């Protein structure tokens, strides 16, 4: 780094002398972290690109066929036509099955990006990473997905350099302060995904078309059982995957998102994504001191 220009204000010269760093925090969150004794030391990030395979695009599978002979040990629910053979086009069989290979690929991609972010935080001697932002975006129409995580690495003031991996949290600023105030400490972010494929059978097809149909035996208003079952199960699976990451700790600020995509008539994919903060109690409720406003003119 070149010498600090002599015509800069004294405060600017002092900042240059201390070295530069980056941060992804807002001004308010930055100030709140300093008030809690957390010193931001740099913006850290991790990235991974994963090829999920042809099955995520709905290709390579005929009707009545589950890839890998079912679901590789995952959840399966079958639906049988109550009408008997009506015609060759009649959907006499249906199935909901868990796409475990997609969940495994997603987990590998996310974990790789997360590990690289934590490794960067370790390299700068951070105790934790706050304000984590994770993004998941398709890179192309061939099943390639990118995982990008970033956050602000922080050190606990007047504390020795950590010997273990940094903790992480989506929280920052006052929201993080409230967690400490309540007697909890962040451990890590938690993100899980569950994927369910729906192959419609005749009843589901008729009802999804907006009519009971002459073979549905379901006059009037009726619940579409196969879709309801798939939606309920994919949420349960996402919660189960997240619970396995907690190891007895609590999940704070949980956010559940469900996305449904239709590849072709009767071929649906439902994905559920659950994220939150793994926190651990370390003390009883202890209100933090109210910060005193200060104004500096130089």
Q: Would you write up a description of this structure?
A:
The chain contains 6 helices and 9 strands. By secondary structure, the protein is an alpha+beta fold. The protein has a 5-stranded antiparallel sheet with strand order 2-3-7-9-8. A 4-stranded mixed sheet has the order 1-5-4-6.
Gist?
The chain is α+β, with helices and mostly antiparallel strands.
Tally of helical runs? 6
Q: Low-confidence parts, pLDDT < 50 over ≥5 residues?
A: 54-71
Distance between the termini: 25 Å
Helix/strand-derived class?
A: alpha+beta
Percent of residues in beta strands: 25-35%
* Estimated helix fraction: 25-40%
What is the topology, as strand order, of the major beta sheet? 2-3-7-9-8
**Rounded average pLDDT:** 83
Overall structural domain count: 2
Shape: elongated
Rg over alpha carbons: 26 Å
- SSE order in H/E notation? HHEEEHEEEHEHHEE
How many strand elements? 9
Largest sheet: 5 strands, antiparallel
What key phrases describe this protein's structure?
4-stranded mixed β-sheet, single chain, Translation Initiation Factor IF3, 5-stranded antiparallel β-sheet, 2 domains, 6 helices, 298 residues, 27% helix, 9 strands, alpha+beta
List the helices and strands and how they pair.
Blueprint: H1 10-18, H2 27-35, E1 38-51, E2 76-80, E3 93-98, H3 100-123, E4 128-138, E5 144-156, E6 167-168, H4 173-181, E7 184-199, H5 202-208, H6 225-246, E8 250-264, E9 267-281
Helix pairs in contact: 2-4
């Amino acid at each position: 780094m070149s010498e600090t220009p002599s015509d800069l204000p004294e405060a600017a010269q002092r900042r240059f002398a201390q070295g530069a760093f980056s941060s992804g925090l807002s001004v308010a969150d930055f100030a709140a972290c300093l008030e809690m004794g957390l010193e931001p030391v740099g913006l850290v990030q991790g990235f991974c690109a994963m090829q999920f395979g042809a099955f995520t695009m709905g290709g390579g599978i005929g009707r009545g066929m589950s890839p890998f002979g079912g679901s590789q040990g995952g959840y399966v629910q079958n639906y049988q036509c109550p009408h008997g053979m009506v015609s060759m086009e009649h959907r006499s069989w249906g199935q909901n099955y868990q796409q475990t290979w997609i969940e495994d690929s997603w987990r590998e991609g996310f974990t790789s990006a997360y590990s690289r972010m934590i490794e960067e935080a370790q390299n700068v001697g951070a105790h934790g990473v706050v304000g984590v932002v994770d993004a998941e975006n398709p890179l192309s129409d061939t099943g390639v997905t990118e995982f990008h995580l970033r956050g602000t690495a922080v050190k606990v003031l007047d504390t020795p350099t950590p010997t273990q991996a940094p903790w992480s949290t989506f929280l920052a600023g006052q929201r993080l302060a409230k967690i400490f105030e309540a007697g909890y400490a962040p451990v890590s972010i938690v993100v899980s995904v569950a994927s369910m494929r729906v192959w419609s059978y005749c009843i589901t097809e008729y009802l999804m078309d907006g009519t009971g149909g002459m073979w549905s035996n379901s006059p009037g208003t009726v619940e579409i059982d196969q879709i309801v079952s798939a939606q309920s199960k994919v949420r349960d699976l996402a919660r189960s995957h997240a619970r396995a990451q907690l190891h007895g700790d609590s999940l704070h600020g949980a956010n559940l998102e469900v996305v449904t995509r239709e590849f072709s008539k009767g071929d649906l994919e439902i994905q559920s994504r659950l994220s939150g903060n793994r926190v651990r109690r370390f003390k009883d409720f202890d209100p933090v001191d109210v910060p005193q406003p200060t104004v500096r003119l130089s």
